[in-house]
């Protein structure tokens, strides 16, 4: 017997109880089974369970397969799992409860075999389960379409039964995946992600073309829930191992941002993979943390691999958080998960350069609420303001720059007195009085870039980039997305930020000195010229026809080609010819002919 077999009764009970005798005979038979005759022992069990309808309820079926898994030799476990998967395929048209019963039996078998040798069954288990997940969603949607022919009660009952099947599949996937070694788990994560239907990509087998929007959303939610369970407890040595580009790109796809629940699942998956020191529980809930040191946050020095990852993929993470804050259907949980994402990024991946990027992102989130170019509801605007406050309070204490902490604390204190709805403790209460409008000139309620730059500059931070407003990168998927074009968002941001930034309205109380005036006179002309050049370039790409821009680019390309041709003609000369010399005039070659009798040939060539 293997690990944890059921306890055996006493000798007297064995002789009197036929069921115990049958179980012991069954155990002994299975213990002697070899790979070649394993089917002869397992398939009669399937026939018995089918004939007597013992899959629903499935207590007897679960008990039988526990006996099988504990009695057979360990190296044959994968064969039994393959047989269960095959039987699930055979019974795929049966009622949802029968399929759910078979899947629960599979879960019990996997639970026993997961730590042992399961051979080539890993991908087969996941592939079969994902296929049946798709089948279940198809059945659920088919029942919903036929609702006109049936009563509402029967349809809702069928849908709930299919949800039982789907939950059983997700539970099995999650349990199996979480018990695999890390190298196999990363492969399974990639495998599941490849099945998620995302805009602009083709999944390997779960083609959503016949599902419609509702079916695609159901598949996305089911697969992301499965992925969430597989990633639970996963600890990668470097973040690039946990979030390789083929996995990160589809995970952060814009098509997974169109639904509040999908965004929540994506953020929770990111938390599982980024949080390598189990700090997430300490950050649960969005709030102004009085003293971050009380949380006893664990962190290590940022590795070179993690620094390289942030240089390559950091903008993707910032962009996902930025766009996630602009969604109208955000609820409190979304804001809590966004705060946790920012905090975990700070703990696990932030060096000085990333800290500056995160501050720029937080100020950009504040501008979302103040400028409100997306016409967000007042709750969302206040929620974004509260998110920026909670995060900057956390960040200022993590980097421990006194002047920065002082500025953040002062703004939070002012808000608590004059605008408590800008703080998470107030805005996320059930009954919160929202303001009718947000006044842009109330600068004492806002975090100001010039104040932050001044405080960080004195501590050795390179604050030059703080003056550049954060703008999310445009990706190829934005051209395919059904969402609002981010190009419009970028151009609007540039116009607004260059014309009427909040900080431009802050009275400059700096003392005017002779050196300051001299510097202003010297630099003013150059700065004005640079601003005018940038304005003209932005205006041109916003308003000029596409054909004009393309023609100009083509002209530049042709000019470059001509220049290269001239350089090559000058540098790559042909070998000297006895027939004459070559000269180049205005980019064209001219040959000077020499009469034959004047040609000079080598002595060896003359007879």
Characterization of this structure:
The protein has 607 residues and is an all-alpha fold. Among the domains are: 244 residues, no CATH class; 55 residues, no CATH class. Helix content is 62%, strand content 1%. It is built from 24 helices and two strands. It has a two-stranded antiparallel ribbon. A hairpin with a 2-residue loop joins strand 1 and strand 2. Helix 4 runs parallel beside helix 6 and helix 16 packs antiparallel against helix 17. The chain is extended. About 5% of the residues have low confidence. It comes from Vidua macroura (Pin-tailed whydah). This is EFR3A protein. InterPro entries: ARM-type_fold, EFR3_Homologs.
Q: Secondary structure elements and their pairing?
A:
Blueprint: H1 11-16, H2 18-31, H3 38-51, H4 59-71, H5 77-90, H6 96-113, H7 121-145, H8 152-178, H9 182-195, H10 212-231, H11 239-242, H12 245-251, H13 260-274, H14 304-325, H15 332-349, H16 352-371, H17 378-399, H18 402-418, H19 424-427, H20 449-457, H21 476-480, H22 486-499, H23 514-543, H24 546-571, E1 582-585, E2 588-591
Antiparallel strand pairs: 1-2
Helix pairs in contact: 3-5, 4-6, 5-6, 5-7, 6-8, 7-8, 7-9, 7-10, 8-10, 9-10, 9-12, 10-13, 13-15, 14-15, 14-16, 15-17, 16-17, 17-18, 18-20
Specify the overall morphology.
extended
What spatial order of strands do you see in the largest sheet?
1-2
Helix and strand element order: HHHHHHHHHHHHHHHHHHHHHHHHEE
N-C termini distance: 102 Å
Compute the CA-based radius of gyration. Answer: 34 Å
Instruction: Write down the oligomeric state.
Output: single chain
Taking the sheet with the most strands, its summary is: 2 strands, antiparallel
Helix tally equals 24
How much helix, percentage-wise, in residues? 55-70%
**Using DSSP, what is the number of strands?**
2
Question: Which band does the percent of strand residues land in?
Answer: under 5%
Low-confidence stretches are 479-510
Q: Mean pLDDT, nearest integer?
A: 82
InterPro entries: ARM-type_fold (IPR016024), EFR3_Homologs (IPR051851)
Protein name: EFR3A protein
């Amino acid at each position: 017997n293997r690990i944890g077999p059921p306890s055996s009764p006493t000798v007297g009970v064995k002789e009197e109880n036929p069921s115990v005798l049958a179980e012991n005979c069954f155990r002994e038979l299975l213990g002697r089974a070899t790979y070649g005759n394993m089917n002869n022992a397992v398939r009669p069990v399937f026939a018995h369970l089918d004939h007597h309808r013992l899959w629903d309820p499935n207590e007897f079926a679960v008990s039988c397969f526990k006996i099988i898994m504990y009695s057979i030799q360990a190296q044959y476990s994968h064969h039994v799992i393959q047989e269960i998967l095959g039987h699930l395929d055979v019974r795929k048209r049966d009622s949802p409860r029968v399929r759910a019963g078979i899947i629960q039996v599979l879960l019990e078998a996997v639970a026993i075999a997961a730590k042992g040798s399961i051979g080539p069954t890993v991908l087969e288990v996941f592939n079969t389960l994902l296929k049946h997940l798709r089948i279940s969603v198809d059945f659920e949607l088919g029942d919903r379409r036929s609702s006109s022919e049936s009563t509402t009660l029967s349809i809702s009952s069928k849908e709930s039964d299919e949800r039982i099947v789907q939950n059983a599949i997700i539970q099995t996937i999650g349990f199996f995946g979480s018990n695999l070694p890390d190298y196999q788990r990363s492969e399974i994560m990639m495998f599941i992600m490849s099945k998620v239907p995302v805009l602009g990509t083709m999944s390997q087998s779960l083609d959503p073309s016949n599902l419609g929007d509702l079916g695609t959303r159901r598949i996305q939610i089911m697969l992301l829930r499965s992925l969430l369970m597989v990633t639970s407890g996963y600890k990668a040595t470097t973040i690039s191992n946990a979030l390789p580009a083929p996995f990160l790109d589809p995970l952060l796809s814009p098509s997974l941002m169109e639904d509040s629940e999908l965004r929540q699942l994506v953020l929770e998956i990111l938390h599982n993979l980024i949080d390598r020191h189990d700090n997430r529980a300490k950050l649960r809930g969005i709030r102004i943390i009085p003293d971050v040191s009380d949380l006893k946050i664990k962190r290590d020095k940022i590795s070179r691999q993690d620094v390289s990852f942030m240089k390559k993929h950091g903008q993707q993470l910032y962009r996902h958080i930025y766009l996630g804050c602009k969604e109208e259907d955000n609820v409190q949980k979304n804001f809590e998960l966004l705060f946790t994402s920012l905090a975990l990024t700070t703990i696990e991946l932030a060096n000085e350069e990333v800290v500056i990027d995160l501050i720029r992102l937080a100020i950009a989130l504040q501008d979302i609420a103040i400028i409100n170019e997306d016409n967000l509801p007042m709750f969302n605007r206040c929620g974004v303001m509260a998110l920026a406050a909670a995060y900057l309070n956390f960040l200022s204490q993590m980097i421990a720059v006194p002047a920065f902490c002082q500025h953040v604390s002062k703004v939070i204190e002012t808000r608590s007195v004059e605008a408590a709805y800008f703080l998470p403790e107030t805005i996320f209460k059930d009954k919160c009085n929202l303001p009718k409008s947000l006044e842009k000139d109330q600068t004492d309620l806002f975090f100001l870039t010039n104040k932050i730059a001044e405080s960080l500059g004195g501590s050795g931070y390179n604050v030059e980039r703080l003056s550049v407003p954060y703008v999310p990168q445009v990706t190829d998927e934005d051209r395919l997305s059904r969402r609002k074009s981010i190009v419009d968002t970028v151009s609007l941001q540039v116009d607004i930020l260059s014309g009427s930034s909040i900080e431009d309205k802050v009275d400059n109380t700096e003392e005017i000195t002779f050196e300051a005036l001299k510097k202003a006179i010297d630099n003013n002309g150059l700065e004005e010229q640079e601003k005018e050049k940038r304005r003209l370039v932005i205006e041109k790409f916003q308003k000029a026809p596409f054909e004009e821009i393309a023609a100009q680019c083509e002209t530049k390309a042709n000019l470059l080609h001509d220049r290269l041709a001239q350089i090559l003609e000058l540098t790559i000369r042909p070998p000297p010819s006895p027939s004459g010399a070559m000269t180049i005039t205005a980019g064209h070659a001219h040959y000077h002919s020499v009469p034959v009798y004047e040609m000079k040939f080598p002595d060896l060539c003359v007879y």
